[in-house]
Amino acid sequence: MPKATVESLSRKFHDRLGYWPNLSNPGTIQEKLLWRVFFEDMTEAVRLADKVAVRDYVRERAGEKYLVEALAIVESEDDLDFDLLPDAFALKVNHMSGANMMVKDRSGLDEEAVRRMLRTLLKMRYGSRTGEHWYGPIPPKLLVERLLVDSKSGVPIEYKVHTFHGRVEFIAAYASKSLSEGRNPNVLVEAPGALHVDTSGATISQYDRNWNPTPYRFGHTDAARPPNDPKPSVLGEMIGVAEQLAGDWGYVRVDFNCVDDRELYFAEMTFSPGAGLSKYVPDHYNEYLGSLWDINRRYVRIGDSL
User: Fold this and answer.
1) Which of 217, 231, 290, 283 is nearest to 261 (CA)?
2) For labelling, which of 133, 140, 219, 222 has a CA lying 20 to 30 Å from the CA of 105?
């Protein structure tokens, strides 16, 4: 698989966002995310992007209560004993994003198809073409967790908490998601009985740390929908945990799932959302968000290819 270079990623940046990135003096949030790929020391991100290894980090920084119960952690699909699992569970690979399978009824699961799917996923080296090179050194493993179920919405509301230098600046709420059958768009092989979280009907709104709607939004969200999600009862707790986990990173997104508006669970830490190609509107807020991140406050390395 071809590796990302300054030239290839700058071209992709231009084609997606409509302007050429300035890496010598980055200003927008997208430019700084691309700068991160080539010039920031991301050694620590290898552990934090690993869905298995990060559990120890969360346990140390925030506490066991924010971790979803792990039912199994194995290195090979052949080591996975479905007979030891409950009827419902979530199955994830630790070294990539989006390749999650949800099982509501194990009796209807095609176990051999799942093993074939997992075999394919474990061989993949995620992030090479997008420049998210910190995924590459992660030792691939399988993580089985308890399936989270919200009594009202089914799939818990997901909160994506954006932090700058250890401070939460805004939160994106993803509601009205569902579990869907058929092929997961992030997975190459279909396995009957394995579901995936379908975000096609999700509502996405953004709020500041006081739960006021932000004057900016993601470019792909519905501009006509008013941001009227109820303020979560765990908002203060979520902000506190996110800031504990964010540490001294100039920018990192910390994701949570919330069950019944009272149980808060860590999901993942993301260092380049959307591979750095997500746009905010109105356009000038891309510069504003970039101004919240002082790239001179962390050690940097020099390099021009991955």
Assistant:
1) 231
2) 140
